[in-house]
Amino acid sequence: MDRGTVGLPGAFNGLVARAAADAGFEGLYVSGAAVSASFGVPDVGLVTLGEFASVIEQVARASGLPVLADADTGFGEAEMVRRTVFEYHRAGAAGLHIEDQVFPKRCGHLDGKELIATGDMVNKVRYAAEASRACSGGAFVVCARTDARHVEGFEAAVQRAAAYVAAGADMIFPEGLESEAEFARFAEHLRTATGAKVRSGRGPYLLANMTEFGKTPITPIARFAELGYHAVIWPVTTLRAAMGEVTRILADLKRDGTVQAFLPRLQTRQQLYGLLRYKPGVEWEWPGR
After folding, report:
1. What are the structural domains, with CATH classification, of the chain?
2. What is the mean pLDDT of the chain?
3. Is 43 among the residues known to form the active site?
């Protein structure tokens, strides 16, 4: 992130992670929404810490890439936030983000969210930063997400973010911004509020969420770079692409009773084996990157 803006596509299992690495991405994102959906449940905090850690381990091992992982509200209060940092680090994540919503949380692009007090979130961030220093010497990235834009207003979101930086957050994730102008304003206002040069390495990193069908307009990563953001996530894109096709194919299969019509759209056996670095009859070795 010090060299340029990093794109982090969502990976909800090891095979998707392997495909993203092969596509040339420099890092990956594990989304709470995508993982929850892949478990067949909504994104309201139903997936456990252990289940998240298992997915993170799959993604990190299969890809060999740095992984930023969603930790929702930290699975509890400050003590659980500390444990979450240790568990995510042990699973292979390079960092996590926690958010300032009450539990059960809501998707950041839905209305009707509620926030915990700023002081409570500050305490969570402090515990996370202390845990990062303990388990990684501070290398594990602590990202604080604020959902205040659509609850308390834009300036409140900036002030919350500044408080989280003061508490030890390495990165700030302003959720639900609605325009390029808002992203630019947020970067500038946070720079002013913290007295930091956001792009200099002396201030907090900034994360942009480029989810589809939400409050943020579709914006290229190059534009986010111009606006002062160090990383961009596409959290649910791979899941939406996969499940869109799965749903269509299942409907065709139910109607026709045969795979013939959509056979050209399927990944071939050879393509799957190539992705897995597998040759039948040859002893398989873990590919790493």
Report:
1. 6-236 (3.20.20.60)
2. 93
3. yes
